[in-house]
Amino acid sequence: RATVLNRLDPPAQPRFFTEKEQHTATALFDQLLYQRQEPRIPVMRMVDARLADHKTDGWHYETMPTDDQAWRDSLAGLDGDSAERYGHPFAECSWDEQKELLQSIQDLDSEKWHGMTASQVWSLWTRYGCTAFYAHPLAWNEIGFDGPAYPRGYKNIGVDRLEGFEVRDARPGDDPLRTHDREAQR
Question: In 10 A of CB 182, how many CB atoms?
Fold first, then answer.
């Protein structure tokens, strides 16, 4: 319970990102995770805490710098491209300008972007962003996760073994009424 409740509190003041990087990273995560209004999950702060504590995935692409350096380089590249294209930092761009710039980076795919493979930069951003976002209880409803099983625990352990409160995923071609009837009969 304490772990879940602690996730609702905003992480401490940023310790890894500079102030400029904080603004850029916040705008980046808002775009990637489509957070256009409050309440926003504090993804930048969660990623900042992770990087400050050196809690990486334990690997990085051989052709990329370590995650901490890749974050610094990619955020600087984002601001540089934004200044060149729009005349101001990424965080000050309109929503559509940010979207257009990010799409141009994603479209590069296996080409180089600021000395790094664009698809690998994209992977870095989305790995960290999604990990932080879906670790936060406010995002759990979006994916149908009711939260950790404790204190009750899981009783039906195993592949395809559902708990009493779960229902099977719909599959293409399923008739929703029949699927519901089968679940009710179980």
Answer: 13
pLDDT 10s digits, 126-140: 999 999 999 888 888
Which of 62, 77, 64, 68 has the alpha carbon at shortest distance from 128?
68
Tokens of 88: 């101001």
Per-residue model confidence as pLDDT tens digits over 61-70: 999 999 999 9
- Which tokens is 15 given? 């310790």
Nearest CA among 149, 160, 138 for reference residue 33: 138
Nearest to 91 by CA among 44, 147, 22, 160: 22
The pTM of this model reads 0.78
CA distance readout (Å), 28 to 31, 92, 103, 143: 5, 11, 12, 22
Residues of the chain falling short of pLDDT 50: 179-180, 182-183
